[in-house]
Amino acid sequence: MEKPKKDPIYKSFGYAFEGIFAVIKKERNMKIHCCMMILVIAAGIFFQISVIKWCLCFSLFGLIMALEMVNTAVEAVVDLVTEERRPLAKLAKDAAAGAVLIASIMAAVAGVMIFVPEFLRFADQIFI
């Protein structure tokens, strides 16, 4: 039996980008994550944060956005499988949403740890 032919790599990337743009367009929370990312990038540029801090910020952006996409995929699959209210369906959806929430809270804590000292240094320069 012959293996089915795989799509060329550029098509695989195309499908991935379609998924990213679909989630950004469809999901309110992904729009919020994108807005927060833009604000953090602007703050990072303004405060001229270090390369290490940039790496941490971009890693957290990727983690949160990837988890939001997995959450969307879990919700879509659960909705595809059943329209009934079932305990396992609820658990799957709630657990996926909880993963995004935990990552977002930890990213916010890291953001405070990165940007509060930068803000305080900036305030010292202005008010002294």
UniProtKB/TrEMBL annotation:
- InterPro entries the record matches: DAGK, UDPK
- Membrane-crossing ranges are 34-67, 95-116
Signal peptide: which range, if any? Answer: none
GO MF terms listed in the record are: kinase activity
Q: Which UniProt keywords apply?
A: Kinase, Membrane, Transferase, Transmembrane, Transmembrane helix
Q: What is this protein called?
A: Diacylglycerol kinase
List the CDD domains hit by this protein, alphabetically.
Answer: UDPK_IM_like
Q: Which gene encodes it?
A: dgkA
